[in-house]
Design brief:
The complex is a heterodimer of chains A (298) and B (317). Helix content of chain A is 71%, strand content 0%. Chain A has 298 residues and is an all-alpha fold. The termini of chain A are far apart. In chain B, helix 6 packs antiparallel against helix 7, helix 11 packs antiparallel against helix 13 and helix 12 runs antiparallel to helix 13. Chain B starts with a helix and ends in an 8-residue tail after the last helix. Classes of the chains: A mainly alpha (298), B mainly alpha (317).
């Protein structure tokens, strides 16, 4: 009988079909805080995508005639020490923040996820050695590691993404590995194995899809921390280079010297960072409660 | 127990050895070295002069030799020479250590003082408005950048009290009150951030403990709510919190890096940032290594402490 193993082992997508909007509506009702976080992230996404439409001025153009201007109808959030429009800079900063945050989170999580998947699936000595190596990376404080990395790699958007993603790798590997360890003992995996399905195929086709819940939770939670690390690196002068308007760098230039004369220079970029991180934290928490009951409270 | 400690120490040593390699390689990847930076302002420097300086600093040797030399230095407690200050690295770092330790201890104190009570109240009043408010409060702390929180605190002081915090470090022997204010504000900023994790763990672990039989017994005996919660439940609920404090330590150091910079406190963390920008290899290498040792030791101590606090946990057999 010519039965293709994969046809038996991979269940067809027989999920309870409910319209996407009912799922969203239920989420809003059950997790109002998480929904608020989702709304904040959506707002950030829209701002980042339509930054060119939403801007009122060129975010890089200086205006010597109007420096440290108070917020008014012309400049919604005032101007900085070079006369640049803060509102337009924050709108464009959302793009930088989101691109760097999402890129580094994805890079770190996918890399860590693959390491965790293979380490957990193969087990034995490979697993042991991998775990020890990950211990090394995780032993260093996240910010310190990112600081040293970005200093070592030099200033560029690409290097900042790499510097932020490396500390995420061990955290992602841990999460995926722990769920792989329990999934690989399940009967359907045994069934696939007895049918002679190759190891790599079992790992990626049969086990990987079932780790997606924890993976999504992980990504959401790490996104906030990635945005925060980017802001901190840029604040210290080791992050996204000029001319990209970065929220963190907006605080570094303005901070000490002009804060008392023009508090709006300090307040608005900081509020933007806090809201973005707050949104992703809220959403991450709610998703964790919904998708992954085992991680609850940790 | 003894074999367990020995095992843990061996693993810790191996981890530290791995870390030293990672740190060493990372710093050698950096574009530009101290010689370029030292003489960037001096304009032209002849290649032969540069060679002489490299030789003097020991940077002309193969990387493997430099690495082994560094390991030897760490083991013998000699931390090498700071390129920038032309002083032994340890002499540069030593006066900075007490500042960071004081700040770290105060921050941890605030983190526990804020985190545990809010966690308890949040758990006892689960799913009420108060619970939601406290959780938002705690998550907000986690979401604000530490350096921005510091800036806003300074800004608030200036505009509401017309008081500018001292821009230079005040020693406790000179003016104790000013010293205390100078440290309490940054500690509060770092502590508030760190309290979020403690609050969550306290909340979830207290919720779990409150469902156990012995708590029902305590209620059945007619104990007042306060005694049941603070004496019976919290005792067991705080065990996971102790573990988190160990993990928290690494997180706290990250917060200190920027907070010391904002508040202009001459601590190890602020110095690390400066040393990175100057590419002062010996200082950065040793400071990051120092951080790694502190983190690993604190995790080890917490694990041991866990065994002492919880009689159910027994190490080795």
């Amino acid at each position: 009988m010519a039965v293709r193993p994969a046809a038996i082992a991979v269940p067809t997508r027989a999920r309870p079909t409910s319209a996407p909007w009912t799922v969203v509506a239920r989420f809003v009702r059950k997790k109002p805080l998480g929904a608020a976080g989702g709304a904040l992230m959506l707002l950030m996404l829209i701002t980042a995508v339509f930054a060119d439409v939403l801007q009122t001025h060129d975010p890089i153009a200086t205006n010597a005639a109007y420096t440290l201007g108070r917020p008014n109808l012309e400049h919604f959030l005032g101007t900085d020490h070079l006369g640049r429009d803060i509102y337009s800079r924050i709108v464009h900063g959302a793009r930088v923040s989101l691109v760097v945050g999402v890129a580094s989170t994805l890079l770190g999580s996918v890399l860590g996820g693959i390491i965790g998947l293979l380490s957990g699936y193969i087990g034995g000595k490979t697993d042991l050695v991998t775990q020890r190596v990950l211990d090394i990376l995780q032993g260093l404080p996240l910010l310190v590691l990112a600081l040293v990395m970005s200093a070592a790699l030099g200033p560029s958007v690409q290097n900042v993404v790499i510097a932020i993603s490396i500390p995420i790798v061990p955290r992602a590997a841990r999460v995926i590995r722990s769920s792989v360890l329990s999934i690989r003992e399940m009967q359907y995996v045994e069934a696939a194995r007895s049918l002679g399905v190759r190891h790599l195929r079992i790992a990626f086709r049969h086990i990987l899809p079932n780790t997606m819940g924890p993976f999504i939770v992980l990504c959401t939670a790490q996104l906030g921390s990635a945005i925060l690390v980017e802001a901190t690196l840029s604040y210290l002068g080791l992050g996204v280079p000029e001319p990209y308007p970065s929220w963190g760098r907006m605080l570094s230039v303005s901070a000490a010297e002009y804060a008392q004369k023009a508090p709006h220079l300090v307040l608005f970029p900081g509020i933007a960072i806090s809201l973005a991180v707050f949104g992703s934290n809220l959403l991450g928490d709610a998703l964790r409660d919904t998708l992954d009951p085992r991680l609850r409270g940790s | 127990m003894k074999t367990y400690i020995a095992q843990r120490l061996a693993i810790a040593l191996l981890t530290l050895l791995g870390m030293s390699m990672v740190i060493f390689v990372l710093l050698r990847l950096a574009p530009g070295d101290i010689v370029d930076i030292l003489f960037a302002t001096a304009g032209y420097i002849s290649p032969s002069e540069k060679q002489a300086i490299m030789k003097e600093l020991g940077m002309d040797r193969p990387y493997v030799v430099q690495y082994l030399d560094w390991l030897h230095q760490i083991v013998t407690g000699d931390l090498g020479k700071s390129y920038r200050y032309d002083l032994p690295a340890w002499e540069v770092i030593r006066p900075l250590v007490p500042v960071t330790l004081e700040l770290a201890a105060l921050s941890m104190m605030f983190a526990v003082l804020i985190g545990v009570p809010t966690g308890v109240v949040s758990a006892v009043r689960q799913d009420t408005t108060l619970d939601y408010a406290l959780r938002v409060f705690s998550l907000a702390g986690l979401s604000m950048p530490a350096f921005w929180l510091g800036m806003v605190i300074i800004l608030g002081l200036v505009s509401w009290f017309a008081w500018i915090p001292p821009l230079t470090y005040v020693s406790p022997t000179k003016d104790l009150k000013l010293h205390a204010i100078q440290f309490l504000l940054p500690a509060l900023a770092v502590g508030y951030r760190s309290s979020a994790l403690i609050m969550r763990i306290t909340r979830s672990s207290l919720l779990e403990v409150m469902r156990e039989d012995y708590i029902r017994t305590a209620w059945a005996k007619g104990q007042t709510g306060r005694i049941v919660i603070w004496r019976h439940a919290l005792k067991n609920a705080l065990l996971p919190v102790v573990t988190v404090i160990g993990i928290e330590f690494a997180f706290l150091i990250g917060g200190l890096v920027v907070t010391e910079t904002v508040f202009n406190l001459p601590g190890v963390a602020r110095f690390l940032v400066q040393a990175i920008l100057w590419r002062d290899y010996p200082v950065v290498q040793n400071l990051v290594m120092f951080t790694a040792i502190v983190v690993i030791l604190s995790n080890l101590i917490v694990d041991m402490l866990y065994g002492v606090l919880d009689p159910r946990v027994r190490y080795g057999s």
